[in-house]
Amino acid sequence: MSTEAAALPQKTPLLQSRLGSFLAVVPLSIWVINHLWDNLAAFSGGAAWQSSVTTYAHPFSQALAFLVSLVPLIFHTGWGLVRLLSFRPNNLAYNNYGNLKYLLQRLSALGALAFLGAHIWKAFLAPRLLNGAPEAFDDIAREMRFHGPTLVVYLLGTLATAFHLANGLQGFGMAWGIFSSERSMRRFEPVVIILFLVLLAMAWGSLYALYQAGEALGPRTGTQIEM
Length: 227
Ligand code: HEM
Description:
This protein has nine helices and no strands.
C-alpha cells in the first residue's frame, strides 16, 4: 500500500466493522441459544411451552426482549450483507476445508435471513398484531405435523442458523484476536463441530416434540381460525 493510500481514512471504521461482529455474539448468539433451550419445553406439553416461550412477566420485558434480539439482528444483517456483496467464491480454484467453511458461512447466512424473516413474522409478529395473542402451542404443533412446507422450512432454517452460529464463533475468535495462531484456531475446530451438533439437536429435538404433539391434536378443522 502506498503511503498516500495509507493516509486515506479507512472505508469501514474499526468500531463499525467490529460492532456487527460483536453484536452477532453478544447478545444475538446468547439469545438464540436461550430461545432454543426454552423451546425444549415442548417435550413437557403445551402449557410448559407456552409459559417458557411466549409468556412474559410484563409487557415491558416483552418489548425489551424484542429490542435486545431484533436491533442486534438488524445491525448484524446489514453488516453481513455488506460482506456478502463483496464475496467472490473461488472454491474451485482453492478447494480446501477452510475455504468451504467460508462459503458455507455465507450460504447459511442467506438461509438464516430467509428463515428468520418468515419466522419472526409468522410466529412472533403476525399472531400478536393480527390476533392480539401470542402463537398458540396447538397451532404451531399442528402446522409442524400437517403442513409439510412449514416442517421443511423449520428443519432447514434451524440447520442453517446452527451452522452459522457455531462456525461464526471461530470467525469471531479470529476477528478479535482470541486465537494467537493458526494452530490454536484449528484446535477450536472440535468445539465448532460439537456446538453445531448440540444446537441442531436442541432445534430438531423441539421440532420433533411439536410434531409428536401435533398428531394427538389432529389436523385443523374448517371451524378453526387460521393463524
Ligand atoms: C440468528 C441470527 C444470527 C446469528 C446468531 C449470527 C451469528 C454470527 C456470528 C457469531 C458470526 C461471526 C462474527 C465474526 O466473524 O466476527 C457471523 C458472521 C456472519 N454473519 Fe451472521 N448471524 C446471524 C444472522 C445473520 C444474517 C441474517 C445474515 C445476513 C446476511 C448474516 C451474515 C453474516 C456474514 C456474511 C458473516 C461472515 C462475516 C465475515 O466472515 O466477514 N448473519 N454471524
